[in-house]
Specification:
The complex is a heterodimer. The longest helix of chain A has 23 residues. Chain A is mainly alpha-helical. Chain A is built from nine helices and no strands. In chain A, α1 packs across α2, α1 packs antiparallel against α7 and α6 runs antiparallel to α9. Chain A is 66% helix and 0% strand. Chain B is mostly helical. Chain B is elongated, with a radius of gyration of 22 Å. The termini of chain B are far apart. The chains are: A mainly alpha, B mainly alpha. Chains A and B meet through α1, α2, α6, α7 and α9 of A and α1, α2, α4 and α5 of B.
């Protein structure tokens, strides 16, 4: 149980961003595992199925909830001049906070900013982000789990990462 | 290659999934473009922070509730 419950909870929480919702998803996933019995051909098939069912149940749980918190990603993407160079204030486009220590970035207001940025991602983007960057699955595996094309998965992943980067840069960039 | 071109394909570059010739072209652009170097560094860092933030563990009391739930469920199956 421990092997799967940790992963299921991580993914469910990553998508729903709610501990009570994630707990319900974990219980529902285990109920489905029990009901399905031994109908899997090996551990890989079971693992893939668990990711898929967890993603679907988590997305269903999110349906109609907290949409007001989610922002359009268009405002969080870089803008460009007609010649293809970055548009915007020079100090902002060269702001590099990447050398700041992790303990500072992952605590206090910076951590709250990061969590808020993740909260505000549309749920399908957050699902791809968690499956790729937390669970470290391949684009192909994620595409099968979310039932989309590899190209769509790559686009969502890139836009989600860009949105996190933008939010953090708007908060940290001035002090870099 | 423009800044727009670089940022468009940054995910493949960061994930090591870019053809070598294109990666070399991107590297050449980076050498002369401070905004893109900053973008790449902060994109990598944001990705790493997202990974760490996502590594949450199920609270102990929730694990205990789950064990009880499964025990109760299996008794009735």
């Amino acid at each position: 149980m421990t092997r799967y419950s940790a992963r299921v909870y991580r993914l469910a929480y990553g998508i729903t961003r709610s501990a009570p919702d994630a707990e319900e998803v974990v219980q529902d996933v285990f109920l489905q595992i029990i009901n399905k019995g031994a109908g899997f051909e090996g551990r890989a098939a079971l693992s893939s199925w668990i990711y898929r069912i967890t993603t679907n149940l988590s997305l269903n749980k999110r349906r109609g909830k907290r949409r007001e918190l989610e922002t359009s990603l268009d405002d969080m993407l870089p803008t460009f001049l007609p010649d293809g160079h970055r548009a915007g204030d020079r100090a902002f486009v060269v702001a590099d906070w990447s050398e700041m220590p992790d303990d500072k970035l992952l605590s206090g207001e910076s951590r709250r900013m990061l969590e808020a940025a993740i909260d505000r991602l549309p749920e399908h983007y957050r699902a791809v982000l968690v499956l790729r960057d937390v669970e470290e699955l391949s684009n192909d595996e994620v595409a099968q789990i979310v039932g989309d094309t590899v190209a769509a998965v790559k686009t969502r992943l890139h836009r989600a990462r860009m949105a996190l980067r933008e939010k953090l840069t708007r908060y940290l960039g001035g002090g870099a | 290659m423009t800044c727009r071109d670089v940022i468009e394909v940054l995910a493949d570059f960061v994930d090591g999934a870019m053809p070598a010739a294109l990666a070399a072209e991107l590297q050449r652009h980076l050498q002369g473009c401070e905004p893109c170097r900053a973008y790449l560094a902060t994109y990598r860092k944001a990705r790493a922070l997202g990974t760490v933030a996502g590594r949450i563990e199920m609270p102990a009391e929730m694990q205990a509730r789950l064990r009880r739930f499964l025990a109760d469920t299996l008794r009735t199956v």
